[in-house]
Amino acid sequence: MTTLFTDVYMSPRLLAPGGTPADLTTHEQRYGPLGYGDPAALLRTLAESGLTGRGGAGFPAYRKFVAVTDSARRTERAPIVVANGAESEPASRKDRTLLRLSPHLVLDGLQLAAEAVGAAEAYLAVEEGASYLESALAQRRDPVRVQVVRLPARFLSGQASALVQYLSGGPARPAHPVPPVRERGVRRAPTLVQNVETLAHLALVARYGADWFRSAGTPGEPGSTLCTLHVPGREVRVVEAPFGMPVGRLLPLEGASAALVGGYHGTWIPAAEAAQVPLASSYLGAGVLAALPADRCGLTETARVLRYLALQSAGQCGPCLNGLPRMAAAFQTLAVPGPQGTARTDISRWAGLVEGRGACHHPDGTIRLVRSALTTFTTELDAHAHGHCTATDRTPVLPVPTEEI
Amino acid sequence: MDQHIDIDWTSCQGHGLCAELLPEHITLDEWGYPLVDGRPVPPRTRKRARRAAADCPVLALKLREG
């Protein structure tokens, strides 16, 4: 169960208040009607808003929209728009929470995106809740038809090129990024893939304008973002917070030794430092924040996540296929107190070998986690080398779907 | 315009012919997969680079402009 404390950090923009799903009537009462008919003005407003993708990469939405429109003009093919609600990251709950509470905000955004790029077809891709979303769709009278697609629950299913392959009738596996999906995506048409939260923000930008959007966040990174908070002993929470807010104001770090910022492709940061770090898309990923209590072992946590990440490799790219399982095995050696042999140097070398050598960012994200663990947990590494672990509680903190392993 | 070596990692199976044909740009890692130096291919090497692209058994190596 996920709880919501949406009003703690800012008045909520995206999530329906009270944790009650908003049907179409409630949605329209709350946000007002949506205007269509001027794609050029919508694109201008989107550019002024500075909205960036909320799926993890933080790429400016406007630039992606323009790239897709340009490709469509060049290839004379109508583009396709995909709302990405895959949320394959096991620790993230923000997209499914948004889709459950405010489905119509996402569907509004999807229609606007289709209008802005001139698409006649749209998809909403999710791992769960497809029938709920289909009934939400049935309440609406949208200009562009939307098809809800159920994705296989794999870590890489939500990767844009994997999504595009799947929607084209292939496997949900990442593809070589040349040409990019914005040029050749679903059934070779120029394709705009946007995270569902990005589309929900777009629905509000279209209604209230760029200045309103920029009234939260920082000038460099305007707006707010949904985060999933993991604090051991408490329920997992999804909150909306403005960019620039220190992580410590969102995530209680008393009694914590470190925080994982940005999920399983993210960064371990020592608690004292993490408390001061402002929310920024460069390392926030898809918004997962987790506190590691001082009585737990960060190496054990990392080893468990790494094993999962290695098994979730699509197994297509040699460096990832070879490097990730070896790193995971060596990290398991480090997680157990006792002789470490060459594990540390091996991991560093393999990290260098997988970096940038894959079709998707799975190897790069994985080594970000590995490297930050080796830096943040140095003291614990040395303790393990001397045969003891400082942790007293072995209960896992980070969720890993065991049935997949 | 400069030419760069581009590997389609989803296709590459580590046959290693590219490293034999273009040793000044490509070596093999400990698992047999190409490590590309990232430098542009100079005009005097382009013929061999084209051959490396054509001879790759799975056509995973491409020459990319820019």
TrEMBL record, chain A:
This entry's Gene Ontology molecular function terms read: 4 iron, 4 sulfur cluster binding; metal ion binding; NADH dehydrogenase activity
The protein's matches in InterPro entries, at most eight in alphabetical order, are given as: ComplexI_51kDa_subunit (IPR050837), Nuo51_FMN-bd (IPR011538), Nuo51_FMN-bd_sf (IPR037225), Nuop51_4Fe4S-bd (IPR019575), Nuop51_4Fe4S-bd_sf (IPR037207)
- Family of this protein: Belongs to the complex I 51 kDa subunit family.
Give all residue intervals belonging to the NADH-ubiquinone oxidoreductase 51kDa subunit iron-sulphur binding domain. Answer: 302-384
What are the alphabetically sorted keywords of the record?
4Fe-4S, Flavoprotein, FMN, Iron, Iron-sulfur, Metal-binding
- Which GO biological-process labels does this protein carry? cellular respiration
Please give the organism.
Answer: Streptomyces fuscichromogenes
Q: What is this protein called?
A: NADH dehydrogenase
Domain called NADH-ubiquinone oxidoreductase 51kDa subunit FMN-binding: residue spans: 47-202
Which cofactors does the annotated protein need, by name? FMN; [4Fe-4S] cluster
Q: Organism's domain of life?
A: Bacteria
From TrEMBL, chain B:
Output the superkingdom of the source species: Bacteria
Q: Which Gene3D superfamilies does the entry link to?
A: 3.30.70.20
Task: Supply the name of the protein.
Answer: Ferredoxin
- Which organism is this entry from? Streptomyces fuscichromogenes
